[in-house]
Design brief:
two-stranded antiparallel ribbon; 19 helices; 2 strands; 321 residues; mainly alpha; 1% strand; globular
């Protein structure tokens, strides 16, 4: 019991550092916590260091990572400490190539499933290797695209996008065409391609809107919405009238809202004004991300009042008022 209370006290004292300046005393407290054998303490310390952007903790993060990776006396259930440490090292831009190289290869099977709890860690470390410009990073990341866990594969896609290299775009195109058991991985590839090749990738992504797989259509629509490209608006406009499935239409409306262009907002308002009630309700819900736009709320309020549809009015009140 005393040990548990001691851990609780340490966790409480770390939590108390949130929102405080990264003073030397705070840095020393975090460094001591990183040396703890309790994974929840080290994980919390790494999170606080990341949030406060505490400088100079690279060596302590690296030592803690290796200890939890190799020391059986410091078990890391759920890979909590190693994942938090890798995330902190990444966001604090620690030049610890060895940490990321060890992490991208780490597999940790737990539970009655069992399941691999290190998938997120591998994805973070892929980004880390690219960030520190490790030689052979692209080889490691490309191999991670074949990882058994979708979370790790998504991490690999994001690392390729972060690298910003043309060869990465070629790999992503191949991966998107080859497919993945998890459609979210393909969607991440399409989003990454629009970052790497903002104009060239648009026709490629548009092809996925014609896929027989409705989930891939949705992933393509969402990727276009995050692209912030004017041409994406035209693609979505061409696609919306052809969409027969309500779920796909909802995703397309969300993509319009995500573009944030005035023309995209005008299109959604026109749906609220003139389309059938269920589509108008979906458009209102898509506009929820703009609920802090007072002028748009007033504009929609007038449109909804004019239509005098009870279900639409209810959706507007729940979503935007």
């Amino acid at each position: 019991m005393a040990k548990a209370r001691g851990i609780d006290d340490v966790l409480a004292s770390l939590a108390a550092l949130r929102g405080q300046p990264a003073e030397p005393e705070a840095r020393d407290q975090i460094a001591r916590a990183l040396a703890s054998k309790a994974n929840i303490v080290a994980a919390k310390a790494a999170d606080i260091a990341r949030e406060l952007k505490v400088p100079g903790l690279g060596p302590q993060l690296g030592e803690a990572f290796v200890r939890f990776l190799r020391d059986s006396k410091s078990p890391d259930k759920g890979c909590a400490a190693k994942t938090a440490i890798a995330r902190a090292a990444l966001e604090l831009e620690c030049p610890d190539e060895e940490l990321f190289r060890l992490g991208i290869r780490h597999v940790q099977i737990e539970g009655f499933g069992p399941s691999d709890v290190a998938a997120e860690l591998r994805g973070l470390c892929a980004l880390g290797l690219v960030q520190v410009r490790s030689r052979g990073a692209m080889n490691e990341v490309a191999e991670l695209l074949a990882d058994r866990e979708p979370q790790a594969r998504i991490g690999a896609v994001r690392a390729l996008a972060y690298a910003g290299k043309e060869e990465g775009a070629l790999v992503l195109r191949f991966k998107a065409i080859s497919g993945d058991p998890n459609p979210a991985v393909v969607g991440e590839c399409l989003t990454a391609l629009l970052l790497l090749q903002p104009d060239e990738a648009l026709p490629f992504v548009e092809r996925f809107l014609e896929s027989p797989d409705e989930v891939l259509q949705e992933e393509a629509a969402l990727a276009l919405g995050t692209s912030k490209r004017p041409q994406a608006l035209e693609i979505l406009r061409r696609t919306y009238p052809r969409a027969r499935d309500r779920r796909l239409r909802q995703v397309l409306l969300t993509a319009f809202a995500s573009l944030r262009f005035p023309d995209a907002i005008d299109f959604l308002v026109s749906i609220v004004e003139t389309d059938r009630p269920e589509s108008a309700i979906d458009a209102v819900k898509a506009l929820q991300i703009h609920r802090n736009n007072t002028a748009l709320r007033e504009r929609l309020s007038q449109v909804v009042t004019h239509r005098a549809d009870a279900s639409l009015r209810s959706a507007f009140q729940k979503t935007l008022e």
